[in-house]
Write a structure and sequence with these properties.
acyltransferase activity, acyl groups converted into alkyl on transfer; 3-stranded antiparallel β-sheet; transferase; 505 residues; Citrate_synth-like_sm_a-sub; Citrate_synthase_bac-typ; binds carboxymethyl coenzyme *A; Citrate synthase
Amino acid sequence: MGQPTPSSSQNSLTVRDNRTGKTVDIAIEDNSIPATAFKVLSANPEKGEREENETTKGLRVSDKGYLNTAVMRSEITFIDGDAGVLRYRGYPIEQLALHSSHLETAYLLIYGSLPSQPQLKVWEDEVMHHAVVHADAEQFFRSFRYDAHPMAILTSAFAYLGSYYSEANPSLQGQSLYTKGSPESFAVMDKQIYRLIGKATTLAAMAYRVRQGRNFVTPPTGLSYTGSFLYQMDYLGEENYKPNPVLEKALDVLFLLHADHELNASATTVLQTGSSLVDPYSAIAAGCASLYGPLHGGANEAVIRMLISIGSPANVPAFLEAVKKREKVLSGFGHRVYKTSDPRSFIVRKTADEVFRVTGKDELLETAMALHEAAMKDEYFIKRRLAPNVDFWYVFTSRLLPCKLNCSVLRSGLIYRAMGFPLDFFPVLFAVPRVVGWLAHWRQMMLQPGGVKIWRPRQIYVGETKREYVQSMNALRRKSRPHRYPILGEITKRTMLATFKGAKL
Ligand code: CMC
């Protein structure tokens, strides 16, 4: 504090509070400054200033929507949104998509390095071995209505799953269950990781089947992660049933691409929830709820609904005009981080080609193409650097994409549609692989140096200042003129007009 010193001025920020003339020197570490450093800048309130500003208690840092706030030191995923770079633990996503598998990448994301062959074998065996859920779970799934949104089912199912494992619950076993760093603590943590990744496909497949009125199937042995998932959704008693290998592989690539995306809304929600040291099942359920929203994982569903509502390429110009007037929402465009091409889009493009060769193309494609072309020429979108995001492009075929764009939401939607998944199941196909990323971030937070700090942000209170309670006019009226009717609760106009025993009209 005070005047900046020569040694600290090299890699530091000097801030002068013009209210008081006070100067603070804040160290810069990894190109960031701690927000708490501003707490020392307090001042006397200005004349008439609201006491709720708490000006004497130090300066607050406001950042609605976390536009420039780093909440973790992380070693997991790096995104350069301007350059279109995405790396998991240092490996470019393109290389992983080409050479790795979803489960191998999951190991990498969670534990920090690629597994050796024996490690991979143990890991895959453990995850697949934990796919089975207790037979009781059937009742849980059957309690949902036939038309329940599968994300509502999946979100609830993750929380429900936690109820089986009292040994995994810090509320029952002690707060330091996951933060101790002891061999026992690691073992408990690993087991919940196997269970959550292993059972994610099972829960999702059960959510799928309950809506189709189908019986549930036991997870098969001898199939890959996505092969088992497809089997659990589609098997109807056929002999030697095997999912189509092109679809199995395509799903595996899409899962790998969706496995993590740094501190997006759902990963942040998992950490926010996990920061109270709640069990990982509850934290994953919270992440799942966050992902469900149409600004995040629900976008791939929203894109298809939007394309259906546009109807044909001829309606695209009118639709875009409505978007610019903010009367309509253009789903699948824009991203908080990517301002250029989403590196995943090129892989998705290739995957889309492979899938469409097997399934045929989607009739929404022409509308999607027209929308893309019109938007990319339009000043409104160019100025705001709004390009199709990952969810948009999942609905396209490669021939459309000479793109220098950020693009996968659209494509995922069309690939999933081509594969015959129901629209509302698309976010589930995003949530299942994202369990991996959520767990990687959760594990990292549990083991971070210095322990877990509960995430408790500040607010800027702009509501009413202190005021005295005054009884409402209705309450006063009721006191002076008691009800004439011998019934409980508020009397509606309809009741006043009704006739019944005891009514005094
Ligand atoms: N259509 C039209 N205008 C848009 C769009 C869009 N899809 N997205 C952003 N804008 C405008 C926005 O109105 C604002 O304009 P102005 O400066 O005139 O007020 C400007 O672009 C900046 O947008 P923003 O809302 O400040 O950007 P953000 O970083 O807060 O939001 C976003 C990012 C992804 C929520 C947003 O772009 C959006 O709502 N997109 C549509 C939903 C979508 O596709 N979501 C999937 C994201 S990718 C997958 C994932 O990560 O889950």
